[in-house]
Specification:
Number of helices: 7
Oligomer: single chain
Radius of gyration: 16 Å
CATH superfamily: Ribonuclease H-like superfamily/Ribonuclease H
CATH class: Alpha Beta
Shape: globular
Length: about 200
């Protein structure tokens, strides 16, 4: 495994393939308040690419934005709703198309309430990942080695999880329903940013 850290944007000409795993690290869980600090990506080859945004440096990242908005590249997330909102708010990216392993898990693994990334990695592909650095200071000027490894682990296994979840969705006849949910996720993130974070707009 190789981890590359870049400041402010991806390098020119980086090709991560047709399916790219994406995750974000922020200063907290309130998108409008807690700034975006790191975006991590992987093409499924065992390598991770981390883009770090320094405080006050801005979010002009044309190479990153190009990948996020490229309709020929599937962006693979775990809990896409949060990441899509952060990427829109800070990078200005209308990210699509998307796939969310958490959403897929909730649709097909109805026998459990364990849908976190750590749970999926353990139960579906037999990989143990640590979440110890989840609440660390992602806004620090330099990322520690532990933070880099943690950030990488959030994207390195999503391709494998997708393969398993796709098979389960097909088995249970929920592939089309999952796709409809994935297609709606950018709109769900936009609703979060517009002030409807928890309200069900379809409720009576």
């Amino acid at each position: 495994m190789a981890i590359s850290v870049y400041q402010g944007d991806l390098p020119d000409g980086l090709d991560l393939g047709p399916v790219v795993a994406v995750d974000t690290e922020t200063m907290g869980l309130r998108t409008m308040r807690d700034r975006l600090c790191v975006v991590q990506l992987s093409g499924g080859d065992g390598n991770a690419h981390l883009v770090q945004f320094q405080a006050g440096a801005g979010y002009v990242a044309p190479n990153l934005k190009r990948i996020l908005e490229d309709r020929s590249i599937l962006k693979l997330f775990h809990f896409a709703r949060f990441d899509l909102a952060a990427l829109k708010q800070y990078v200005g990216a209308d990210t699509a198309p998307v796939y969310c392993t958490r959403t897929a898990s909730r649709l097909v693994r109805t026998f459990t309430d364990r849908h976190g990334l750590k749970d999926l990695c353990r139960e579906l592909i037999g990989v143990e990942i640590s979440k110890q650095e989840q609440s660390s200071d992602w806004g620090a000027p330099s990322l520690t080695e532990a933070q880099q490894r943690y950030a990488a682990s959030d994207v390195l296994y999503l391709h494998q999880l997708k393969t398993v979840l796709d098979a389960m969705l097909a088995r249970e006849g929920r592939t089309a329903l999952a796709q409809a949910c994935f297609d709606f996720l950018p709109a769900r993130a936009a609703l979060d940013l517009a002030g409807w974070p928890e309200e069900d707009i379809f409720a009576h």
